[in-house]
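Input C-alpha coordinates:
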Protein backbone atom coordinates (compact mmCIF):
# COMPACT_ATOMS: atom_id res chain seq x y z
CA UNK A 1 0.00 0.00 0.00
CA UNK A 2 1.38 3.42 -0.93
CA UNK A 3 0.68 6.44 1.25
CA UNK A 4 1.67 10.11 1.27
CA UNK A 5 2.85 11.19 4.71
CA UNK A 6 1.24 14.35 6.09
CA UNK A 7 3.65 14.54 9.04
CA UNK A 8 7.09 13.22 9.93
CA UNK A 9 6.87 9.63 11.17
CA UNK A 10 9.85 8.14 13.00
CA UNK A 11 11.59 5.28 11.20
CA UNK A 12 9.26 5.66 8.20
CA UNK A 13 9.77 8.99 6.47
CA UNK A 14 9.30 12.74 6.47
CA UNK A 15 6.37 14.94 5.55
CA UNK A 16 5.20 14.85 1.89
CA UNK A 17 7.12 11.67 1.15
CA UNK A 18 5.48 8.78 -0.70
CA UNK A 19 6.24 5.49 1.06
CA UNK A 20 5.15 1.86 0.81
CA UNK A 21 3.72 0.38 3.99
CA UNK A 22 1.92 -2.81 4.90
CA UNK A 23 -1.85 -2.49 4.42
CA UNK A 24 -2.67 -3.10 8.09
CA UNK A 25 -0.20 -0.47 9.31
CA UNK A 26 -1.63 2.06 6.85
CA UNK A 27 -5.31 1.34 7.57
CA UNK A 28 -5.04 0.87 11.33
CA UNK A 29 -2.36 3.36 12.35
CA UNK A 30 -1.40 5.98 9.77
CA UNK A 31 -4.77 6.84 8.21
CA UNK A 32 -6.89 7.07 11.42
CA UNK A 33 -4.32 9.33 13.10
CA UNK A 34 -4.08 11.61 10.06
CA UNK A 35 -0.39 10.85 9.58
CA UNK A 36 -0.92 9.84 5.94
CA UNK A 37 -3.35 9.74 3.03
CA UNK A 38 -3.72 6.98 0.46
CA UNK A 39 -1.55 7.62 -2.60
CA UNK A 40 -4.06 7.02 -5.38
CA UNK A 41 -3.90 8.61 -8.85
CA UNK A 42 -5.43 11.98 -7.99
CA UNK A 43 -3.51 12.29 -4.71
CA UNK A 44 -0.24 11.60 -6.54
CA UNK A 45 -1.02 14.30 -9.13
CA UNK A 46 -1.88 16.82 -6.41
CA UNK A 47 1.28 15.84 -4.53
CA UNK A 48 3.44 16.30 -7.65
CA UNK A 49 1.97 19.77 -8.27
CA UNK A 50 2.47 20.73 -4.63
CA UNK A 51 6.11 19.61 -4.70
CA UNK A 52 6.73 21.55 -7.94
CA UNK A 53 5.29 24.76 -6.45
CA UNK A 54 7.20 24.25 -3.21
CA UNK A 55 10.46 23.73 -5.12
CA UNK A 56 9.87 26.97 -7.03
CA UNK A 57 9.23 28.93 -3.81
CA UNK A 58 12.23 27.29 -2.15
CA UNK A 59 14.47 28.31 -5.05
CA UNK A 60 13.35 31.94 -4.68
CA UNK A 61 13.99 31.91 -0.93
CA UNK A 62 17.42 30.33 -1.41
CA UNK A 63 18.37 32.90 -4.08
CA UNK A 64 17.36 35.71 -1.72
CA UNK A 65 19.41 34.17 1.10
CA UNK A 66 22.44 33.92 -1.21
CA UNK A 67 22.10 37.62 -2.10
CA UNK A 68 22.02 38.55 1.59
CA UNK A 69 25.04 36.30 2.25
CA UNK A 70 26.95 38.00 -0.55
CA UNK A 71 26.22 41.45 0.89
CA UNK A 72 27.03 40.44 4.47
CA UNK A 73 30.24 38.57 3.63
CA UNK A 74 32.20 41.78 3.04
CA UNK A 75 30.91 43.56 6.13
CA UNK A 76 32.33 43.50 9.63
CA UNK A 77 29.59 43.82 12.23
CA UNK A 78 30.47 45.92 15.27
CA UNK A 79 29.03 44.85 18.60
CA UNK A 80 29.29 47.25 21.53
CA UNK A 81 30.15 45.96 24.99
CA UNK A 82 30.95 47.48 28.36
CA UNK A 83 34.65 47.23 29.11
CA UNK A 84 36.60 47.50 32.35
CA UNK A 85 39.91 49.29 32.88
CA UNK A 86 41.93 46.17 32.09
CA UNK A 87 40.23 45.75 28.68
CA UNK A 88 38.04 42.83 29.77
CA UNK A 89 34.37 42.72 28.82
CA UNK A 90 31.70 42.81 31.52
CA UNK A 91 29.42 39.87 30.82
CA UNK A 92 29.57 38.29 27.40
CA UNK A 93 28.66 38.86 23.78
CA UNK A 94 25.83 36.62 22.63
CA UNK A 95 23.76 35.88 19.53
CA UNK A 96 21.09 38.42 20.50
CA UNK A 97 23.59 41.29 20.39
CA UNK A 98 24.97 40.12 17.05
CA UNK A 99 21.43 39.82 15.62
CA UNK A 100 20.68 43.39 16.73
CA UNK A 101 23.91 44.66 15.17
CA UNK A 102 23.06 42.92 11.88
CA UNK A 103 19.56 44.41 12.03
CA UNK A 104 21.08 47.90 12.29
CA UNK A 105 22.82 47.17 8.96
CA UNK A 106 19.42 46.47 7.41
CA UNK A 107 19.31 42.65 7.42
CA UNK A 108 16.88 40.64 9.52
CA UNK A 109 18.48 37.49 10.95
CA UNK A 110 17.01 35.50 13.81
CA UNK A 111 19.27 34.98 16.81
CA UNK A 112 18.70 31.22 16.84
CA UNK A 113 20.37 31.06 13.41
CA UNK A 114 23.60 32.60 14.72
CA UNK A 115 26.29 30.32 16.13
CA UNK A 116 29.34 32.00 17.66
CA UNK A 117 32.61 30.14 17.09
CA UNK A 118 34.40 29.66 20.44
CA UNK A 119 31.74 31.60 22.33
CA UNK A 120 33.42 31.12 25.71
CA UNK A 121 36.67 32.73 24.52
CA UNK A 122 35.11 36.17 23.98
CA UNK A 123 36.50 37.98 27.01
CA UNK A 124 38.26 40.97 25.44
CA UNK A 125 37.82 43.47 22.63
CA UNK A 126 38.72 42.19 19.18
CA UNK A 127 37.51 40.39 16.08
CA UNK A 128 35.71 37.08 16.31
CA UNK A 129 33.81 34.78 13.96
CA UNK A 130 30.22 33.57 13.84
CA UNK A 131 28.31 31.24 11.54
CA UNK A 132 25.00 32.64 10.31
CA UNK A 133 22.41 30.27 8.86
CA UNK A 134 20.38 32.24 6.33
CA UNK A 135 18.78 29.17 4.72
CA UNK A 136 19.10 25.45 5.33
CA UNK A 137 21.64 25.32 2.49
CA UNK A 138 23.20 28.79 2.88
CA UNK A 139 25.70 29.20 5.72
CA UNK A 140 27.84 32.31 6.10
CA UNK A 141 31.01 32.59 8.17
CA UNK A 142 30.99 36.19 9.26
CA UNK A 143 33.43 38.32 11.24
CA UNK A 144 32.21 40.56 14.01
CA UNK A 145 34.17 43.03 16.03
CA UNK A 146 33.64 43.63 19.73
CA UNK A 147 34.17 47.34 20.43
CA UNK A 148 33.81 49.53 23.49
CA UNK A 149 30.36 50.97 23.68
Amino acid sequence: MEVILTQDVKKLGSKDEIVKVRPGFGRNFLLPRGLAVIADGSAKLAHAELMKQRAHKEAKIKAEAEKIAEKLSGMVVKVGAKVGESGKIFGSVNAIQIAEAIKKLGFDVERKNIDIVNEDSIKTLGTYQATVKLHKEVLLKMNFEVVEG
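Residues 2-67 form a domain with the Ribosomal Protein L9; domain 1 fold (CATH 3.40.5.10). The first helix runs from residue 23 to 30.
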